[in-house]
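As agreed, record copied across for absentees:
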Amino acid sequence: MSATNTAALTAEPTPVLASVKIMPDFSHRLAYDYKSDCPDALGQDVETMLARSKGMLSLVQDLHLSKQQVEINPENIIWALGSVIHELDDVFALVSTYRDAIANQQA
């Protein structure tokens, strides 16, 4: 990770932004219009997210197992693996949202 990126990740929020709750729209990461209480939607979205993670890991694996000598930039590998970690965190968040939606319906 470059020094600039590391500094941006570790920087403290400004006082103005620290008090603002930002909720970005991540719908572009899901297969279609997400419904938090629909088991079929949950299953399809988790399947899509896992396919993206497996695809990224497969590319990293192929680079390392390649019979050709390919110069691999370590920073690119770190970003690729970081993408997989974020994707898996998204799966957890999606399942947690589903669990909460079901719990709210039963309450």
User: Anything to note?
Assistant: The mean pLDDT is 75.
